[in-house]
Amino acid sequence: MNSRHMLPRLLLLLTLCSPLPASAQRLAIRNARLLTVSGEVIESGTILVVDGKIRAIGTNVVIPSGVTTLDARGRTVMPGIVDANAHFGLRDTLNEQASEVTPQLDILGQLAPRSVDFQHALTFGVTSACLTPDSANVVGGQCSVVKTAGKTFKHMLLRGSVGMKAALGYDTANGNGAFFGAQRASLPSIFLRRPNSRMAAVWELRKSLDEAAKSPMLTRVRNGSLPLRVSAHIENDIRAAVTIAEEFKIPHLVIDDAGDAYKCADLLAEHKAQVVLGAYVDPQTGGPDGANPILNTAGILDARGVMIAFGSNGGDPMPLLHWAALAVKNGLSPAAALRALTLNAATICGVADRVGSLEVGKDADLLLLSGDPLELTTKLDAVYVNGQVVYRAE
Questions:
Q1: Is 220 helix (H, G, I), strand (E, B) or coil?
Q2: Closest among 149, 147, 123, 129 to 392, alpha carbons compared
Q3: 24 or 170: which leads in pLDDT
Q4: Hey, CA dihedral for 155, 229, 277, 373, is it positive or negative?
Q5: Element (H, E) at 269
Q6: Residue 175 pLDDT
Q7: What pLDDT, on the 0 to 100 scale, is given for residue 394?
Q8: How far apart are CA 116 and CA 317, in angstroms?
Q9: Residue 324: which of 307, 337, 343, 305 has the closest Cα?
Q10: Would you call 75 exposed, middle or buried from its count of C-beta atoms within 10 A (0-12, 13-18, 19+)?
Q11: What are the start-end ranges of the E strands in the chain?
Q12: Are 28 and 364 in contact (CB under 8 A)?
């Protein structure tokens, strides 16, 4: 390697390997390409972090004396990724089996702060995750957002009760059904309580919203202070979710998973529904629940004006950056892909005032990369949460 390129790399490595004292959350990253997401890209910029918050950002930032300084020449800084639909880091991802409608339950009751899942998520650049109940219940409970770094519940919690999880489709019928059914290898209950068809799932959700006065949390869904997040894979279920939201005048609807969303992009745009896309699957093999996915769903939705984000939708963290890069390859613009990973996800999850973009006053959740984040050859050098280094590349 050319010797003139070696010195900056060595200086960067030495700086990253120097531990930042827990009490000294004062850091300046300078000479970096700053992808603010909410504004223009800043070339050769500086970002100043004080007490875990972004204090200043730009090309003419004055760095106070005593601040740890990192020369990131040739590197890129972007906001930490927000996983908008995650089930990892939980003690148990199953739904409560005592009832089909459980709006009173909060996913935070399942949080396992010391789970290795959170360290795994950091290696993918995920600094915040919206934890959601599973999709076996028609109304599964409350979603909450946590940071992926922190040793205790208090340190990790970003915001609780940011959405109400609901579901339509196969998952709601694939539980404790007929006691003598040969397909039921392991039954949590002998009682027949789950819907056995899509019709019944729709009826159950409508009934729950019609009787929302019985539940403080469903009352919040009806008045718009709590988003309704419906897991729906196929076109019929997506359209049913929109129809229900229209019938009960639900102000804030989010469709999770949404493999067939491209088939009803205009409808979603008309109703200002937001979409959190799940894992990319090979169109030749088909998607979950009989969906027919295509590789440019993200691009089609974005072109129609639908706000999109990405979510791992599983018990393990996923490489959302790679999914975004694949979306770009198939039609989504790079700027829209970065928004989907960060600011859009934060907006959908109700935490855009704290994370999702590089702005003064927001949490210093940052990714330091060797180049363009949407290039598969780019390396994630370091991850910062609240201004502290929580991951360094080997």
A1: helix
A2: 123
A3: 170
A4: negative
A5: helix 265-270
A6: 59
A7: 78
A8: 10
A9: 337
A10: buried
A11: 26-34, 42-50, 53-58, 68-71, 76-79, 81-86, 126-131, 139-147, 157-167, 228-232, 253-257, 274-277, 308-310, 366-369, 380-385, 388-392
A12: no
Residue 16 to residue 126: CA distance in whole angstroms:
19
- Report d(CA 326, CA 374) in Å as an integer: 9
Question: pLDDT above 90 covers what percent of the chain?
Answer: 76
Nearest residue to 90 via CA among 347, 393, 278, 312 = 312
Cα 335 from Cα 322, distance rounded (Å): 15
Among 306, 296, 236, 233, smallest CA distance to 268 is for 306
Residue 245: both structure tokens together? 């939201």
HSE toward the beta carbon, residue 214, CA cutoff 13 A = 8
8 Å CB contact between 381 and 369: yes
Amino acid 252: pLDDT = 97
Confidence of residue 193 (pLDDT cuts 50, 70, 90): low
pTM (two decimals): 0.90
Of 285, 311, 281, 309, the C-alpha closest to 295 is 281
pLDDT band at 283 (very low <50, low <70, confident <90, very high): confident
Phi then psi dihedrals of residue 190, to 5 deg: -85, -5
The Cα 178–Cα 187 span in angstroms is: 9
pLDDT at 1: 44
The structural domains of the chain, ordered by start, are 3-79+357-392 (2.30.40.10), 81-348 (3.20.20.140)
Helix axes 320-329, 334-341, angle to 10 degrees: 160
Of 22-26, 28-32, 143-147, 237-241, the range with the lowest mean pLDDT is: 22-26
State how far the Cα of 314 lies from the Cα of 325, in Å rounded to an integer: 20
DSSP symbol at 287: -
Q: What is the mean pLDDT of the chain?
A: 89
Beta strands in 59-120 (DSSP E): 68-71, 76-79, 81-86
Instruction: Convert the pLDDT of each residue in 5-17 to its tens digit.
Output: 444 444 444 444 4
